[in-house]
Write a structure and sequence with these properties.
Layout lengths: L1 E9 L4 H12 L4 E6 L3 E3 L9 E10 L3 H14 L14 E7 L4 E2 L4 E2 L8 H10 L12 H7 L5 E3 L9
Antiparallel strand pairs: 1-4, 1-5, 2-4, 3-4, 3-8, 6-7
Length: 165
């Protein structure tokens, strides 16, 4: 089983329910959620739109990266994700951030996520559950990267009960 990290976000509809339900759908014979961060309210990047709810999760999977990415895209579609504009509002966004220590560049997938090290809305929740994970290109821990990012606009919400299956 490979260890992976994903980031989830939503700013349309009942975002809290969407995020937690999407995590439930990841639990299958070939993929398991092993850890989930708190939920964070974050300021959007891009056009004017509502704030996002974001979280990160660690997974164990038997799927190779391209198949895992397809699973994530399928789950987005199940929640009504329609790609209209870059950085626009969405019911669900799931990004594959890290897959073990793999470095990969294909037309469909770049690992690690190319903007992971710049995004507080990902680094802050990810540092909660995987602080020592080393960025495979930058050779710095997630915690170190999170310490250096601008955390303004990122606010941790009170704990939400979520049972890992």
């Amino acid at each position: 089983m490979a260890r992976c990290a994903i980031g989830l976000g939503s700013n349309l509809g009942d975002s809290q329910t969407v995020l937690l339900s999407a995590l439930d759908r990841l639990n299958a014979a070939d993929t398991r959620v092993t850890a989930r961060s708190h939920l964070y309210q974050t300021a959007p990047i891009g056009p004017a739109q509502p704030d996002f709810l974001n979280c990160c999760a660690c997974l164990q999977t038997r799927l190779p990266p391209a198949q895992l990415l397809q699973r994530l895209l399928d789950i987005e579609a199940q929640f009504g994700r329609i790609r209209r504009e870059r950085w626009g509002p969405r019911t669900l966004d799931i990004d594959l951030l890290l897959y073990e220590s793999q470095v990969l560049e294909t037309p469909a997938l770049t690992l690690p996520h190319p903007r992971l090290h710049e995004r507080a809305f990902v680094l802050v929740p990810l540092s909660e559950i995987a602080p020592n994970w080393q960025h495979p290109r930058l050779h710095q821990s997630v915690a170190a990267l999170a310490e250096r990012c601008d955390r303004s606009g990122v606010r941790r919400l009170p704990a939400v009960s979520y049972q890992l299956l």
